[in-house]
Amino acid sequence: MFIAVNSKQEGQIVLNTDKICSIEYQSGKITVLFDNQIEIEICIESSKEYLDLVRHLAIANNR
Q1: What residue spans of the chain are helical by DSSP H?
Q2: b (16+ CB within 10 A) / e for 17-42
């Protein structure tokens, strides 16, 4: 499954959720590590945004 994420530097990017190895949250940033060693950081502004994103990524990754 693929999801689109808006990036301030790159515009919209598309992520392949089948390749996610781990999702970590620390100090308002989510770090997503993919199986090809690519790591992205996602800054969030609220705990609701965090929960929504993690729930979406986890559901997508378990399909």
Answers
A1: 47-61
A2: beebeeeeeeeeebebebeeeeeeeb
pTM of the entire predicted model: 0.57
pLDDT in tens, 2-43: 777 777 777 787 877 778 888 887 877 878 888 878 888 877
Task: Please state, in angstroms and rounded to a whole number, the distance separating the CA atoms of residues 4 and 37.
Answer: 19
Tokens read off for 63: 């399909």
DSSP state of 21: E
CB 50 within 8 A of CB 25: yes
Q: What burial class does residue 8 get, using C-beta atoms within 10 Å of its C-beta: 0-12 exposed, 13-18 middle, 19+ buried?
A: exposed
